[in-house]
Design goal:
The protein is of the alpha+beta class and about 425 residues long. It has 12 helices and 11 strands. The N terminus is likely disordered.
Length: about 425
């Protein structure tokens, strides 16, 4: 009997390995390049049990879905990667959904302990029972998250109502360029990167506060302060002590009427349910490229085999604070957007992403275009909206930051008659 049980277990294990290997080798249902400042950062791949071009059906499927990122950029810090998700999560999901998955998000972001390189493959793979995800980096499991809502929370950042662009969303839902699929399949991690997760997960070395000579070392040399990276446009970072408290929920926003009947504006969906966010509007927000971070409350200093000054260190409270504040800033800006009449007359459309740097009081210090529409009138409309929305609410004191940067994304698109 024991031998029979052993043989059955071995057979099941072999079958599961075969299925996983087949999954890795299978072509994705859609591939889309993520572009920032006219530079490709990664190729995104989406796997669905049943291919579909319908957003709601993609969200409704459960089990065996996978989001995969194959990195093109030579270097991407773990903090940068977390910020690419953070702001988009805040805009594409309801406050309740974010709160419910707060611990899962903190575990996901904090699992990264070093930078990502060109060729690295990050796979967010839904469990077959739909009750959570396994996250793999270069085919090694990085973290297991038991949360039935977590996959859809992340999927909304790609195909929700605020995707990186309309083209990005449509490419993932079965409209990929053949060349992108070929490039995607050709990407693979370098041999020396295959053991990266194992290196990250090694216990941190014990740091003694006493020198070999018996002299006591200065306290600052043996402790690490809580790190809060508030990225400026130039990529500067500031270290701050941060104790985090939650902000009120995102304020409701009433969107101004469009200037003409053949254009419309989509309300930022930060305070709505995911199910209500899946309808495409004739004008939609484009997914942000967030450039903000905050330190967690408590926790131990991180030790990484690959030195990296931009590591995530989130608590549930710090994530709530960042998401609420970011969603509020985006919503206030969106409320000031109008579609220029002349641009509509000339049938001009396109996506715009602007990075906005604030001081502690909420005044605008700098505005930098990350993505332009190709039409000056549309780009200027976004700048005017930022000017009208300013001054923004002050940076929450618990972030202890002198500067804060958020990215405002929007797509101008005319209705087709």
């Amino acid at each position: 009997m024991k031998r029979t049980v052993f043989r059955c277990s071995a057979l099941i294990a072999a079958l599961m390995f075969t299925l996983f290997a087949h999954r890795v080798a299978a072509a994705p249902d859609g591939v889309a390049p993520y572009i920032e400042l006219q530079r490709e950062l990664f190729l995104a791949g989406l796997f669905l049990p049943e291919p579909t071009t319908d957003v709601q059906l993609a969200f409704a499927q459960h089990g065996s879905r996978q989001m995969e990122i194959r990195f093109i950029a030579d270097h991407m810090t773990a903090g940068k990667l977390s910020r690419l998700f953070l702001q988009s999560i805040a805009i594409n999901n309801s406050v309740a959904a974010q709160r419910a998955s707060g611990e899962s998000l903190a575990r996901f972001f904090n699992a990264f302990k070093g930078s990502l390189r060109a060729g690295d493959i990050l796979a967010i793979s839904e469990r077959t029972d739909g009750e959570g995800v396994n996250v793999y980096l270069n085919q090694q499991r990085l973290v297991n998250i038991t949360d039935p809502n977590f996959f859809n929370l992340l999927l909304a950042t790609w195909i929700g109502s605020v995707p990186p662009s309309r083209e990005f969303k449509h490419a993932l839902l079965g409209n990929s360029a053949p060349g992108d699929i070929a490039r995607y399949e050709a990407l693979a991690p370098a041999p020396e990167r295959l053991g990266l997760v194992e290196q990250w997960q090694k216990p941190a070395p014990v740091i003694s506060n006493t020198a070999e000579s018996g002299d006591v070392l200065p306290q600052e040399s043996v402790t690490t302060s809580k790190r809060q990276a508030v990225s400026s446009v130039a990529g500067e970072q500031a270290e701050r002590q941060a104790s985090v408290a939650a902000l009120p929920a995102v304020m409701p926003v009433s969107v101004p009427a469009p200037e003409a009947p053949n254009s419309a504006l989509a309300t930022p969906p930060a305070a709505t349910d995911v199910a209500a966010e899946l309808e495409d509007g004739p004008m939609e927000l484009a997914a942000p490229s967030p450039v903000l971070a905050a330190a967690s409350q408590g926790g131990t200093p991180r030790q990484s085999p690959e030195p990296d000054d931009d590591l995530p260190d989130f608590s549930v409270a710090s994530l709530e604070l960042l998401q609420d504040y970011t969603a509020t800033l985006v919503a206030l800006t969106h409320a000031e957007i109008t579609y220029p009449r002349r641009a509509m007359k000339l049938q001009q459309s396109g996506s715009v992403r602007m990075a906005v740097v604030l001081n502690a009081s909420g005044d605008v210090l700098e505005v930098q275009p990350l993505l332009t529409s190709g039409h000056k009138q549309l780009d200027d409309a976004v700048r005017r909206a930022i000017d009208k929305a300013a001054p923004y609410p002050a940076i929450p004191p618990d972030l202890a930051a002198e500067h804060f940067e958020f990215v405002f994304p929007i797509t101008f698109m005319l209705e087709r008659s």
